[in-house]
Amino acid sequence: MGHMALPRKNVDTDLQELFLRRGVHCHGDSNVKIHPSVRPLAREQVFVGGLGGEIGRAFLWRDTDTADLNVSTELLVTRFGLRRSDEAAAALDAWLT
Question: Quick count: other Cβ atoms within 10 Å of Cβ 92?
């Protein structure tokens, strides 16, 4: 699948509060206001956002990492500190491919 543009959808303050409570106040910023914008991805796609490490801004990069680092499923699972799940690993493998 190629690039998909999603329209921005804002929520009212009640839904912002619900989002914060459901996530135990572990996240915030613009996600609180626009989280329905990515809902179409939940049905068919694996969505790897910034949660748990800010992949897009290289927050979890180590001093020893280089631009040619092989980003693998194992690397992502380890850096996120996740338990291994065959289903999640298969989805990550497909996403990385």
Answer: 21
Long-range contacts of 37-42 (CB under 8 A, 24+ apart): 37/6, 37/7, 37/8, 37/9, 38/6, 39/9, 40/4, 40/6, 41/6
10 CB-side CA count, 13 A: 4
> What 3-state class would DSSP assign to 24?
coil
State how far the Cα of 76 lies from the Cα of 3, in Å rounded to an integer: 22
From first CA to last CA, the distance across the chain in angstroms is 12
List CB contacts of 50: < 8 A, sequence separation 6 or more. 56, 57, 59
pTM for the model: 0.41
- Which pLDDT tens digit goes with each residue over 15-42? 888 888 887 666 667 778 887 887 777 7
